[in-house]
Amino acid sequence: MIRHRRHSTPSMIWMIVASGFFLMIGLGKASSSMGAASIPIWIAAIAGAAYVLRGPLGEAILRSVAGENGDPEQAVASQEILQDLDDLRAQVGELQERVDFAERMLAREREERALNSGGSR
């Protein structure tokens, strides 16, 4: 069974971007109202974001952005699909050759009939 998760990746990225945007706005508001006392808040926010992004969540985000899937079954299924596609291309090529051959044979037969009948039908 193949599951497609590519359509959820852009929404996840936009959610992370929006969260970062709102975090920056909040930190900006804290800085304007608290002044220099907001520096520890900035340090804590940056350290927290770095900690979260270095963990499994960050790795999952990186894999989804890079287009990798952690599902080995899907990788095997992808290889099977590519092999099936190659087989189908070969079969279509064979069928095309057969149709071309049949068309040449029919054209030759029509030419022979036209020559035998003296060019008139």
What does this protein look like?
The protein has 121 residues and is mostly helical. The chain folds into two domains: 1-70; 71-121. 81% of the residues lie in helices and 0% in strands. It is built from four helices and no strands. It has helices at residues 9-34, 39-54, 56-66, 72-116. Helix 1 runs antiparallel to helix 2. The two termini are 60 Å apart.
Keywords:
single chain; 121 residues; mainly alpha; 2 domains; rod-shaped
Look at the structure and give the mean pLDDT. Answer: 80
Instruction: Give the CA-CA distance, first to last residue.
Output: 60 Å
Give the count of helical stretches: 4
Which structural class do the helices and strands define?
mainly alpha
Low-confidence spans = none
